[in-house]
Amino acid sequence: MQGLITKSTGSWYQAQTPDGQRYDCRIKGKFRIKGITTTNPIAVGDVVDFELEPEQGTGVITNLHPRKNYIIRKSINLSKQAQIIAANLDQALLVVTLASPRTSLGFIDRFLVTAEAYDIPAKLIFNKLDLFSDEGLEILQAYKAIYEDIGYPCYEVSALEGTNIDAVQALLKDNITLISGHSGVGKSSLINRLLPDLDLRTHQISEWSDKGMHTTTFAEMFELPQGGFIIDTPGIRELGIIDIEKQELSHFFPEMRERMHDCRFNNCRHINEPGCAVLEALENEDIAPSRYESYLSIYNGNDTRS
Ligand SMILES: Nc1nc2c(ncn2[C@@H]2O[C@H](COP(=O)(O)OP(=O)(O)OP(=O)(O)O)[C@@H](O)[C@H]2O)c(=O)[nH]1
Ligand SMILES: [Zn+2]
Questions:
Q1: Which residues lie closer than 8 Å to 132 by C-beta, 6 or more apart?
Q2: 246-299 sits in which CATH class?
Q3: What ligand has the least distance to the C-alpha of 262?
Q4: Which of 122, 172, 262, 282 has the highest local Cβ count within 10 Å?
């Protein structure tokens, strides 16, 4: 049978078949994944084959289907092992706010770079629309112009008042979506709007914890009433933990990526080189100064996460 992993404790995996049946499964033997050593070979979002053990009613996972992408967290200890947080994401939504609290452009850009590096389409959700003054709305339009121009769709919503929630709902339908954002931007409020049955969620988690849940490896995807899943797991909130080689960084800025083949030097850093197409576009205001600042900041190893 084929199933989608919707929950994982690190030793038990819940597989959901296309007809919606759920089976608790375990892994037999070892799964090796090319290139990385992981503490957990299978994660939420994975598609697996499994065999049912008729007596126990549980399954044994026998095969892992190829992934289109996955996100990892590095382990805190020095074993260099990574933990796969989730696989096969269709999109990553970053919830941001212009006020209370204000999400910095540096944080947004770092998130977008990480999503590019992971090969996950990213979208921005500007929340707390109800708080915006006329001036705030102008700033919002300026921000949206920067990001929509380079291919990141933007949505403006109010989780509090329910404004434009249907647009987000349409976005989530039949997709696996990661929702991220700083504390206080209204992620929980937004998720509550999308998944009104929150009590059920909490209940399910505690039931599963009896199966030997390790808080660090526990992950779950929540199925939306209209189809699709959202991923909500401890520690995922600040996706921004990937090592990127300096030389590669500009590949993860779409507006630089599309211009850098016109740079005079093919190893151009886009910092002070003559004949740099990126610097020329910056000069001509075809590249947003804030985006270029984020590039320099990440390039120089400054933390722009706050
Ligand atoms: N005015 C306004 N307030 C909102 C909106 N959405 C959320 N809030 C408020 O913002 C505060 C933070 O919202 P949460 O949903 O807890 O934010 P969060 O991102 O889940 O925060 P953490 O749980 O700390 O990660 C709460 O007081 C919410 O009531 C909105 O659209 N408008
Ligand atoms: Zn250049």
A1: 98, 99, 140
A2: mainly alpha
A3: 2
A4: 122
Q: Which residues of 83-106 are buried (b: 16+ CB within 10 A; e: fewer)?
A: bbbbbbbbbbbbbbbbeeeebbbb
Nearest ligand to the CA atom of 281: 2
Do 69 and 120 touch, CB atoms closer than 8 A?
Answer: yes
Number of H helices, E strands in the chain: 8, 13
> What interface predicted TM-score (ipTM) does this complex get?
0.96
So what's the architecture of 1-88+195-235 in CATH?
A: Beta Barrel (2.40)
Write down the domain spans for the chain.
1-88+195-235, 89-193, 246-299
Distance (Å, whole) CA 104 – CA 304? 8
Written as six digits, the tokens of 162 are 């329910």
Model confidence, pTM: 0.89
Ligand 2 center–CA 305 separation, angstroms: 25
- Compute the residue count for the chain: 306
Q: What confidence tens digit (pLDDT) does each residue in 30-46 have?
A: 666 555 566 678 999 99
The distance from CA 238 to its chain's CA centroid, rounded to whole angstroms, is 9
Ligand 1 centroid from CA 180, angstroms: 13
What interhelical angle do 187-194 and 165-172 show, nearest 10? Answer: 70
Residue 263 marked ligand-binding: yes
Q: In this model, does residue 254 exceed pLDDT 70?
A: yes
The Cα 46–Cα 71 span in angstroms is 12
Calpha distance 22→5 (Å, rounded):
9
